[in-house]
Write a structure and sequence with these properties.
The chain has about 500 residues and is α/β, with parallel strands linked by helices. It has 16 helices and 22 strands. The strands form seven sheets. Strands 16-17-15-14-20-21-22 form a seven-stranded mixed beta sheet. The protein has a five-stranded mixed beta sheet with strand order 3-2-1-5-13, sandwiched between helices. Strands 4-7 form a two-stranded antiparallel ribbon. A hairpin with a 4-residue loop joins β10 and β11.
Length: about 500
């Protein structure tokens, strides 16, 4: 019987569990959404207990769907929405507050105060990151400062901080009864608290953000055969299974796309949009507004780094058309609506709902729709929404070219939006390079399975993963270069109009 690996993919809007066999093929899965909580403008929260409940439910449902006996599982891998910040009590397992989601902007004043004098790149040399509301460290500081009793408990070691991976591993391995409090290098590299070069928490950064070391998890490689512990037998897996792999979701997609050599890149189209370029075992400092981040670390091998362009709003813009404007009833309808027009009719949407991420990093920006005339209709809005994702991706790719000197020959793509063929063709057109969708679409979960399976010995080496990757559909660029550049010039003009909306 082939080895089976369970991958838990805890994302921004839902949680999935997918079982993969040793050929990297899905053999059972389940998915469940969870609530998005908006206490006030700019604030986004999740309920940690709801996330844990949905995780348990999808694990049990995936095992039942695949008709897999619990004893046949070789390993568990976990991948997660990154930067989303949790604080809970070690003894009771109760959260002190809702999780603060990566999109949340409540820490803007704190980030501005930390940047005063030295600017937003104050910690970039150590962390690879600008000071921005996106990252977990300022969110943790907010919780310590605003939740009664949290700081005192944190200093005593009674309160535990983690991103979602830490929360799930702690629960899976025992919770209050001996749960393992750990994270991996990829998630730790998104906190503004880890030194990118030592791969450990940095005392200077902890002092600057006023975070006690006692609250922090231990940092581990992304894949390890024993350090993440084993699942509790009375938990959702119903037996003891080693947890062998943990990665942030975008790094997991890089591994799932087998972008394991320097110069290979992938783009994931989900709630947000995230492009990662493998830069090898040396971190590359960005001069163009990109993030330098840890891509993965397999066991005792050196860490591999990446340049990343993070776009806050991609699929979320389609959800906004559906939920806020009501011009579609299901997200899948956006492509048909966009095809009712030949082009965007001069309409551009810049979805800076939480400010602009890469390559601008403008927290003072807010979303706009420009170019409206009496000619514009809902088809033009739908098309402009799709094109916004492609335009933002092109800007990130341009920044990667400047920073790395690499001319990308092909872009591997994954995520929920890649079924939209109009978007994928426009993406190839506006980039001027082929866009390739993998045959196995669930690359984020697959990357978690690959990482856990390598640690557990299911696969012998990364070469095995390269051999399993198979292209599905390819889109070739068909737009003339002058037309492409005209569209980009107008897009950049639209982006400039978003600046300074917040004083």
């Amino acid at each position: 019987m082939p080895s089976i690996i369970a991958a838990i993919d805890q994302g921004t809007t839902s949680t999935r569990c997918i079982l993969f066999d040793s050929a990297g093929r899905p053999c059972g899965q389940a998915q469940q959404e969870h609530r998005q909580i908006y206490p006030q403008p700019g604030w986004v929260e999740h309920d940690p207990m709801e996330i844990w409940d949905t995780t348990q439910a999808v694990i049990r449902a995936a095992l039942a769907a695949a008709d897999v006996a619990p004893g046949s599982l070789s390993a568990v891998g976990v991948t997660n929405q990154r930067e989303t910040t949790l604080l809970w009590n070690r003894h009771t397992g109760q959260p002190y507050h809702h999780a603060i989601v990566w999109q949340d902007t409540r820490t803007r004043d704190l980030c501005d105060a930390l940047a005063a004098g030295e600017g937003p790149d104050r910690f970039r040399a150590l962390t690879g990151l600008p000071l921005a509301t996106y990252f977990a460290g300022p969110k943790l500081r907010w919780l310590l400062d605003h939740v009664p009793g949290a700081r005192a408990d944190a200093e005593r070691g009674d309160a535990l901080f983690g991103t979602v991976d830490s929360w799930l591993v702690w629960q899976l391995t025992g919770g209050p009864e001996g749960g393992i409090h750990v994270t991996d290098v990829t998630n730790a590299s998104r906190t503004l608290l880890m030194n990118l070069h030592t791969l450990d928490w940095d005392d200077g950064l902890l002092a600057a953000l006023d975070v006690p070391r006692a609250v922090l998890p231990r940092i581990l490689p992304s894949g390890h055969p024993t350090a993440y512990g084993v699942t509790r037998p009375d938990g959702p897996f119903g037996t003891v299974v080693p947890v062998c792999g943990v990665l942030g979701d975008q790094q997991a997609a890089l591994v799932g796309q087998a972008c394991l050599s320097p110069g290979e890149a992938k783009n994931t189209y989900g709630t947000g949009c995230f492009m990662l370029l493998n830069t090898g075992t040396q971190p590359v400092a960005s001069q163009s507004g990109l993030l330098t981040t840890v891509a993965y670390q397999f066991g005792d091998q050196p860490a591999v780094y990446a340049l990343e362009g993070s776009i806050a709003v991609a699929g979320a813009l389609v959800q906004w058309l559906r939920d806020n404007l009501g011009i579609i009833t299901r997200s899948e309808e956006v492509e048909a609506l966009a095809r009712t027009v030949d082009d965007n009719g001069g309409v551009y949407i810049v979805p800076a709902f939480s400010g602009l991420f890469a390559p601008y990093w403008r927290s003072d920006a807010r979303g706009i729709i420009v170019g409206l005339t009496r000619f514009a209709n809902k088809g033009h809005l739908a098309r402009a929404a799709l094109e916004a994702t492609a335009f933002q991706t092109r800007e990130v790719l341009d920044a990667m070219r400047r920073d790395s000197g690499v001319e990308l020959k092909v872009l591997k793509v994954d995520g929920g939006m890649v079924v939209n063929e109009l978007l994928m063709q426009f993406q190839a057109d506006i980039l001027g390079v082929p866009v390739v969708r993998a045959r196995v679409a669930e690359t984020t979960a697959l990357g978690a399975a690959y990482t856990a399976g390598l640690a557990a010995g299911v696969w012998a080496s990364p070469d095995d993963l390269r051999q399993q990757w198979i292209a599905g559909r390819t889109w070739q660029p068909a737009m003339p270069a002058p037309a492409r550049e005209r569209l980009m010039a107008t897009w950049r003009k639209a982006v400039e109009r978003t600046y300074g909306w917040l004083d």
